[in-house]
Amino acid sequence: MLSTTETADARGPQAPDAGSAPLSPTDRTRLRRGRHKQRADRAELYALLDEGLFCHLGVVVDGAPRVLPTAYGRVGDTLYLHGSTGARSLDTGGEVCVAVTLVDGLVLARSAFHHSVNHRSAVVYGRPRVVDDEDERTAGLRALTEQVAPGRWDAVRVPTRKEMAATRVLALSLAEASVKVRTGPPVDDEEDLALDVWAGVVPVRSVFGEPEPDPLLREGIGVPRHIAEHRSP
């Protein structure tokens, strides 16, 4: 995945973080089961979001739930999302839920019941606001672009006025969020430990492959440094 050690400049203008303020559980974010998996460190939330590439946005449209996979970007304690100005799902004015999940391993137990997945997940609740300020809109779109490939914003053509007019940017506060982390080996029942069944963890990681040039790319344009440096080995 993308490095979580990028400098603030790589993601564009940074708003002040909530710092070391812990994540305060609410009725919606408090885990009812597996409470030991819940994390209160806001830095873990930021690191998880910065490592992810895609989120799932849950909204209610005409009384029916919808889950939309979409890109995002973080600036300080704000998550930025975008979509077309004609997208009805962004016109609800109500609350939304955003989820980001990173899979770290397959947990294979001796019994089917105790199989699990090592993962890190973040869930954010809130009422997003439409960003009208042009400077903030630009910062939000930069964050979205940098989330995909740090350094990309300064290497490409910036959006035109027409493109900006057709793009809606939403800002969602990270004030109400939760982080859940599952690590370690399977937890089998004691009587199952004597079974002749392999058990353990199969690590999972995302890697970047060799960049594939656009068939219409002009000759002589090589892979830029900001892309080559962020490919996984």
Automatic annotation (TrEMBL):
It comes from Nocardiopsis flavescens. SUPFAM superfamilies: FMN-binding split barrel. Transmembrane segments: none annotated. This is Nitroimidazol reductase NimA, pyridoxamine 5'-phosphate oxidase superfamily. It holds the Pfam family Pyridox_ox_2. Residues 1-36 are annotated as: Disordered.
